Structure formats: structure tokens, C-alpha cells
Amino acid sequence: MSSSFGAKPAVLRCSRCGTFVDWAEARAQVVCECRPRIDLPPVLVREAADEEREAALALFRRDFGRSGIVAFGQLMDLDAAPAIVAEMDGEIGGALAYRLVEGGLHIIALATDPMWQRSGVGGYLVAEAELMARRLQIPRMIVSMTNDNLPALYFYQRRGYYVAEWIPNGAERYAKRASLAGFGGIPIRDEVRLEKTIST
Ligand SMILES: CC(C)(COP(=O)(O)OP(=O)(O)OC[C@H]1O[C@@H](n2cnc3c(N)ncnc32)[C@H](O)[C@@H]1OP(=O)(O)O)[C@@H](O)C(=O)NCCC(=O)NCCS
């Protein structure tokens, strides 16, 4: 069974030319506000209905290469996790799987269909998860990623998340076992845990 950290097929989309790109071939670069604005169809963000779970899982499997995510020293089964989905034009364009832990809402996985990346979907999903935490009076959001995942480290820190723990070599074993390539060819070594305080 492939239960490792970040099995990463072509899941990112070039913000300049729109081509889908593999993790290892993706590059980080500086851009200003010149990038074009993408017009989204209306987006409905909500808890996944039973018949939407399969589409959400397909997105996660595509992004993470499997339905088990290893973080915080545990293997979590995405099939069993509750999910929030973003529906647009009748399609599931993005999904967020979560679980409730002691004092926190843990975002286990977040994935936007490459077709819709950089158009606000990921932001809507995270905002909805934070709203849920506020409603449930949960004081903390928690998310974990690997050291190479610069798009996600950027995405979350831009949204008020801060690095709470950096676990050196915390992901290396899993990445090696599955021969995973990191973003831009950066070796996958560490687990990075981010948090955000929610005012309840
Ligand atoms: C990380 C990830 C979830 C981000 O999702 P996303 O849907 O692209 O996120 P958003 O569109 O909300 O935000 C991305 C950027 O697009 C910008 N954006 C939002 N709406 C936009 C629009 N209409 N037009 C142009 N740009 C827009 C946002 O401002 C943001 O850029 P900024 O932070 O520089 O301002 C996505 O890259 C992904 O699926 N990655 C693979 C899986 C992964 O690594 N998941 C995270 C680990 S759990």
C-alpha cells in the first residue's frame, strides 16, 4: 500500500501559460500584480454530500497519489474524513478534508483542480473551514505539509498561518519509500506544521 507523504503527480498549473506541471518540473518565480485576473463561475462551498465524496476523493488521490495522508505521526484515511467541497458549474473544483482534534481543526488535505488553481477556490475552502472552527468555538487551525511544498507554504502563510513546528527529517522516510520528487526537485525531508489562531 502506498501510504506515504506527498506522492505527487502532475497537479499544479503554470500561472503564465496554463500548462499542467509535475511537482519536480514546477518552478517558483517572483511576479507582481500584473498577472491576469481569472473570472470564476459562481462557487458554492459546502459540506460534501454523499454523492460528492467520490469526486472529492478523486481530487485528493490525484494530488496526493493515494487516499492515506501521513502527518503528525499518523496515517489518516481520506476516505473516512469529512470534506468541504467547492462546486462550480456542477463540477467539484476543489475539496478540503478535515478532522477535529483536541483544540483544533486539522486540515488533512486541500486540493484545487489544476484547471481552477489561482482563481480563489483554495481560499474559499480554507475560509469555510475557518468559519466552521469559529462556529464550533475551536481556537486553532492546524495543517501539515512537506518542506518542498512552496506553493502551500506560501498559500497558508499569506492567509495568517504561521510555522508552529518544523520536524527535521519527519517526512524523509515516507518520501524515500515511495521515491517521491519534491516541488522544483527540492528533496522532501521535513514535515512542517502550521497553525492559525481563530478568534472565537
Ligand atoms: C495550494 C493550493 C490548494 C492553492 O489552491 P488555489 O485554489 O490555487 O488557491 P487560490 O486561488 O485561493 O489562491 C492562490 C492565488 O491565486 C490568487 N487568486 C485568487 N483569485 C484569483 C483570480 N480570480 N484571478 C487571479 N488570481 C487569483 C490568490 O490571490 C492567490 O495568490 P496570492 O496569494 O499571491 O494573492 C493548490 O496549489 C493545490 O491544489 N496544490 C496541490 C495540493 C497541495 O499542495 N495542497 C496543500 C497541502 S494540504
List the helices and strands and how they pair.
Blueprint: E1 12-13, E2 20-21, E3 43-47, H1 53-64, E4 68-71, E5 74-77, E6 83-88, E7 91-101, E8 104-112, H2 121-135, E9 140-146, H3 150-158, E10 162-167, H4 172-177, E11 191-197
Parallel strand pairs: 8-9
Antiparallel strand pairs: 1-2, 3-6, 4-5, 6-7, 7-8, 9-11, 10-11
Bound molecules: coenzyme A.
Residues 11, 37-38, 40, 63, 94, 109-112, 117-123, 145, 149, 151-152, 155, 158 line the site of coenzyme A (COA).
Keyword list:
200 residues, alpha+beta, two-stranded antiparallel sheet, 11 strands, 21% helix, globular, binds coenzyme A
Bound molecules: coenzyme A
Helix content: 10-25%
What distance separates the N and C termini? 40 Å
Could you list the spans in which at least 5 consecutive residues all have pLDDT below 50?
1-8
Shape verdict: globular
Q: List SSEs in N-to-C order.
A: EEEHEEEEEHEHEHE
What kind of sheet is the major sheet?
7 strands, mixed
